[in-house]
Amino acid sequence: MKYKIILLLFIGHLMTDISQGAVPALLPYFISEYNLTYSDAGFLIMALTVSSSVVQPLFGFLADRKSLPWFVALGPLLAGLGITIAVLFHQYYLIVFGVFLCGLGVAAFHPEGARMAGIASGEKKASGMSLFSVGGNAGFALGPLMVTGLILLWGLRGITFYFIPALIVAIILYQAAGRFSQLSPEYNLGNKAGKDGAKKIELKDAWVPFILLTLAIICRSILFQGINTFLPSYWIEIFQASKEHASTSLTILLGMGVVGNLVGGRLADRFGNLKTVMVAFLLLIPQLLIFVRVTDMILATLLLMSIGFTCYVTFSPMIVMGQQYLPGRVGFASGITIGLAVSVGGFAAPLLGKFADFAGVQAVFSLIVVFPMIATLFLAFVPKALHK
Predict the structure, then answer these.
(1) Global pTM?
(2) Which of 39, 128, 191, 386 has the fewest CB atoms in 10 Å of its CB?
(3) Which residue range is the domain that position 147 belongs to?
């Protein structure tokens, strides 16, 4: 494993996703400072989702046709610039443009970054991918903290100072782009010459397993977004917790997710990606069933830690599986598994909200138990021969 390259990609991932994680934290300030409606704020999140997730497979497709290592530098640059534009101008269309540009930076970085992380990981692909993806997890967590800190110091326009470290990281990654492009010529598509000058044989893509994997990732996304969206409300409704205490439950969930991500990569390298993912999904089922029946907050907190850990164990191995199923379209596979499939959970959140309005928040947690079951079923049809 090339740890220096993984570290550079980790830093790029961190800086890119700090910008993405900052957008939801900025919404209350946009609403109060610029008199935006909740509908206006919702449209900003939709603009971010469309540009960061829906467009992401397109960047992956471009990266597959021609190696574009400088995309990893474009990511933090556009994301930081987009956030800067959004806070500098009070005109709504410019705020939308800034948020959309931030999302494009995210979309540009992830496919090429994940592709390079897979190459730099050598034989320990899941471990390397877990290190890379933890950068994104940490970025999401640090985004709101960055917003709060800079606004307390210099007001809303103080967020523009974040562009300085984002630009520095972009310059470092751009200078390292040449090293990225020389990692492994056999990962470049088209009939490009390998080290021996011979033309490479095009690798066969396994589309049916990839589609099954994508459906399983969508199930995981709906499960996680359901927990992430309604967990504070669940804590307040079931345990009569304060709003501050309820927010702490999210910190616990995401914190254990970072640990689960790292451990999941190690487990997948030792026991196999498919086996690790299927066991994790199966373990989630009894954990969720017990969680919705627990009335003691301490026990519920312990179960929440276990659920966050187990849910994130699946993250990196599933990205690696996608790259293995489409060896000829690694960038596109990364764009789907990291971007588009993961974003579906966000689109499902309003439907889960309607269900919560009708049946209560606890009913949502009872419902989402179905999704790890369905995900396991999809993965059961993946040919085992692909994982020998």
Answers:
(1) 0.76
(2) 39
(3) 3-186
Which tokens in the block code for residue 34? 């610029």
Question: What does the pLDDT look like over 320-373, one tens digit per residue?
Answer: 999 899 988 888 888 888 877 777 776 787 788 888 888 888 999 999 999 999
Burial class (CB in 10 A: 0-12, 13-18, 19+), 305: middle
Q: Give, as one character, the DSSP assignment of residue 66.
A: S
Q: CB under 8 Å to 362, separation ≥6 — which residues? A: 234, 237, 238, 292
275 vs 272: CA distance, rounded Å: 6
* Residue whose tokens read 């090293």: 179
The CATH number that applies at residue 324 is: 1.20.1250.20
Q: What letter would DSSP give residue 186?
A: G
- What is the rounded CA–CA span in Å between residue 242 and residue 318? 36
Distance, in Å, from the CA atom of 129 to the CA atom of 120, rounded to the nearest integer, reads 9
Domain end residue (candidates: 186, 218, 252):
186
Count of domains observed in the chain: 2
196 in any annotated domain: no
- Termini Cα distance of the chain: 22
Q: Do residues 19 and 193 make contact, with C-beta atoms less than 8 angstroms apart?
A: no
